[in-house]
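Fold this sequence, please.
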Amino acid sequence: MHLHLQGHRGARGNRPENTYPSLEFAIDCLVDSIETDLHLCADEQVVLFHDHFFQLPQSIHHFQIEEFNLQALQTVFKTVPQKNERFPLQELIIGPLSIIFCKRYDLNCWAPPTLNQFFDFVDFYASDEGKTAGKSIAQQKAAASLCFDLEIKQTPFLKCKRDIILKIIEEQITKRNAQNRTIIRSFDHTILQQAKKLLPDCTLGLLSDGTIQVDFIKEMIETGSTLFCPKFDSLSKEIIEKMHGNQFKVMPWTANKPIEWDQLYHLGVDGITTDYPEAFRQWQYSKNKKEITTA
């Protein structure tokens, strides 16, 4: 039994999201891809960050990412982050490769990486530096084949500069010849349509939270998407069968419990996005061992 394992914002359940330690931990768990969100800061650097805004400790003001340049963001996030109470297993540990990489390039381990740094870090993991940091052959192979699942957000009250973000993605993946390892996902169908024209060799993922009832097959075709990414508890066997009947793959977000993974596996999904890739691998191992035993 093999399901595509996608780490959510790295491994959010185990390390602070969208940080080098989170990315490193996810690859340590042999994820097939990492999903992250992209935003543009003031000096038009694309950074890995979930929201358009952030809040500093002991402050009631919300700051927009686009108000800060990259250097300022590095300074803002220079302190060790607070542990996220939603994720009791989250630890504030910096992995050995993150230490080497950040020291080498004078980076803050807890600041959000740029898209370029994300790509560089994965390459660094797959190189001799990864071996020096104690990474196994399997882990380095996982880094070398890792897929980059990049979400571009659009909200009614704050328009993202999609043209700039897509252009930077195009430049970065072309430089690395990583088109076939890149997924562009969005809730906004116009962004996907634009991405299809600019990035024809990338996989497109249509996001859905299940609150709006539409003809998903029609939307997949019109946007040029081949990957359907719904909220995990909005799926049904019927939807999956229709997707597979049209040669589309299904990878729901964000399932974090073995009971949820069991349900999705039996529904027939192609992959799962989770905050807990380590626990998922343990569940998958147990599942495979049981299937071999009962065969």
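DSSP finds twelve helices and eleven strands in the chain. The longest strand covers residues 33-40.
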